[in-house]
UniProtKB/TrEMBL annotation:
Keywords: Disulfide bond, Glycoprotein, Hydrolase, Signal. Pfam families: Glyco_hydro_1 (PF00232). This is Uncharacterized protein. GO terms for biological process: carbohydrate metabolic process. Residues 1-26 form the signal peptide. Belongs to the glycosyl hydrolase 1 family. Gene3D superfamilies: Glycosidases. It comes from Oryza glaberrima (African rice). GO terms for molecular function: beta-D-fucosidase activity; beta-galactosidase activity; beta-glucosidase activity. The lineage of its organism: Eukaryota, Viridiplantae, Streptophyta, Embryophyta, Tracheophyta. SUPFAM superfamilies: (Trans)glycosidases.
Length: 514
């Protein structure tokens, strides 16, 4: 970054920091347990680019963004994205500057196995993640690795219909084994899947993500069955997860000393009214969102609410599968951004075309004309800091003694916001402060929380929203690939390093500017 630009930003940031609410002061890193992981998160397709480099195979998102560009807000794709594949050393450097002790990223399956098991292992792909992992460790940053964050080799999309086909379980088993073998000597934290509870709905219920399958009233697709397929795909993911955990625990954990978990998306549901029906609806929405994946892993079966409502549309586990599922995870990752109101649709009919439709729940961000929290660039995400405490306490209570990591939490802005407000992201600073405050409250109440990751390190390709939505701590100029720290990056750094902006730095940056 040019010195003049850096200085200008520093002055703006210092001025705006001074304007923050004093009530938010006082939160410190040591309000969290010793050894707590603080990090930032990204995923392969969203940042790497280099989509054809070094023998990488095409994945489902490469093909989808090219063949159906009209489904992406700005018709763009991840061909280049943040060019992280070529700029990873710079990105490790900005992580180091932030003062994080961990970095959550995902491995591109098609970079490691361009055609799944139908081709060989791509040594250049292995070499890339080796370089990244080594660069992180050299800076004292623990890699927190996601095996699957939405992208799968296109070969598997074609052969199995993605997660809909049971054959993909063997594929994931093979892929995860290659990764444990290649990287497990240095990786302490593995997660099998990112947000399988969200992706199966976006793929097979709402039809928005490849392979774009759905049926009315959820959407209009060429084919699909919104009431059945999300649960078939989820079943395959759960069994893929269980087999990978079993393999890791049997063959790698003792000598490699790492841990393994899974990451679920977790909205918090507030009943719209105090009626028993709405209170039950909120609980039911949570069962369809979180217990859906975590109950089978912890208790060997799907939650009662789902079995009752979905009946034969919900697959069953055989006794052998139940046994496999009992390979307990070492931790649970939750991606927590928001809360929303839940309204019952069993006793009073409502439109059931939404994300929570199969739970017979209608959700809304508004009660009696008032929003549940400040809106963000994502229309269904509101700023509700208490929701992180509620979510953590719920998971801590239901899945006792399991360590929880907040694997994502973050604030989005529209890309058409003016540059000064993008960089001076006071709202993101407030968001971060607020959520960390409620997270520390959950910790004080005894919840077993092991770490927190901010989504995201850098602005990136936000799936069907393309580049129109920005979550980064660092702004990225996509013409030059310059990374520019936002005010939130500085706030996070100050929080992590305990070195808050002093009068002295204000004087120095002003002097340098003149
Ligand atoms: C629910 O009940 C509580 C306590 O009785 C009350 O404070 C709150 O306003 C009620 N909420 C709604 C949405 O009616
Ligand atoms: C640093 O100090 C400013 C001004 O007192 C405050 O607003 C800000 O939240 C502090 N940053 C951190 C990380 O605590």
């Amino acid at each position: 970054m040019a010195v003049a630009a850096a200085t200008r930003i520093a002055v703006v940031v210092v001025a705006a920091l001074a304007a923050l609410a004093p009530g938010a002061r006082g939160l410190r890193r040591d309000d969290f347990p010793v050894g707590f992981l603080f990090g930032a998160a990204t995923s392969a397709y969203q940042i790497e680019g280099a989509y054809l480099d070094d023998n990488k195979g095409l994945n489902n998102w490469d093909v989808f963004t090219h063949t159906q560009a009209g489904r992406i807000s700005d018709r763009r794709n991840g061909d280049v994205a943040d060019d992280h594949y070529h700029r990873y050393t710079e990105d490790v450097e900005i992580l180091h500057n932030l003062g994080v002790n961990s970095y959550r990223f995902s491995i591109s399956w098609a970079r490691i196995l361009p055609r799944g098991r139908f081709g060989g292992v791509n040594s250049a792909g292995i070499a890339f993640y080796n370089r990244l992992i080594d660069a992180l460790l050299q800076k004292g940053i623990q890699p927190f690795v996601t095996l699957n964050h939405f992208d799968i080799p296109q070969e598997l999309e074609i052969r199995y219909g993605g997660w809909l086909g049971a054959g993909i379980r063997e594929e994931f088993g093979y892929y995860s084994d290659v990764c444990f073998k290649a990287f497990g000597d240095r990786v302490r934290f593995w997660t099998t899947f990112n947000e399988p509870n969200l992706i199966t709905k976006f793929q097979f219920m709402l039809g928005a993500y490849p392979p774009n399958r759905c049926s009315p009233p959820f959407g209009c697709c060429n084919s699909g069955d919104s009431r059945r397929e999300p649960y078939t795909a989820a079943h395959n993911i759960l069994l893929s997860h269980a087999a990978a955990v079993h393999n890791y625990k049997t063959n790698y954990q003792a000598k490699q000393g790492g841990s393994i978990g899974i990451v679920v998306a977790m909205k918090w549901y507030e009943p719209l009214t105090n009626s028993t029906e709405d209170v039950r609806a909120a609980r039911r929405a949570l069962a369809f969102e979180v217990d859906w994946f975590l109950d089978p892993i912890f208790f060997g079966e799907y939650p009662r609410e789902m079995r009752e409502i979905l009946s034969s549309n919900l697959p069953k586990f055989t006794p052998e599968e139940k046994k496999l599922l009992q390979n307990k995870v070492d931790f649970i990752g939750i991606n927590q951004y928001t809360a929303i109101y839940a309204k019952d649709c069993i006793y009073s009919p409502c439109a059931l075309n939404t994300y929570e439709g199969n739970a017979l729940v209608y959700t809304t961000g508004v009660r009696n004309g008032a929003k549940i929290g400040k809106p963000t660039a994502f229309s269904t995400y509101f700023v509700v800091p208490e929701s992180i405490e509620s979510a953590v306490m719920y998971v801590n209570g239901r899945y006792k003694d399991t360590t929880i990591y907040i694997t994502e939490n973050g604030y989005s802005q529209h890309s058409d916001t003016n540059m000064e407000d993008l960089i001076n992201d006071v709202e993101r600073v407030n968001y971060l402060q607020g959520y960390l405050k409620y997270l520390s409250s959950a910790v004080r109440k005894g919840a077993n929380v092991g770490g927190y990751f901010m989504w995201s390190l850098i602005d990136n390709f936000e799936w069907v929203f393309g580049y129109t939505i920005k979550f980064g701590l660092y702004h990225v100029d996509f013409d030059t690939q310059e990374r520019i720290p936002k005010m939130s990056a500085k706030w996070y750094r100050d929080f992590l390093t305990g070195s808050n902006v002093t009068d002295d730095t204000q004087v120095r940056s002003r002097r340098a500017d003149s």
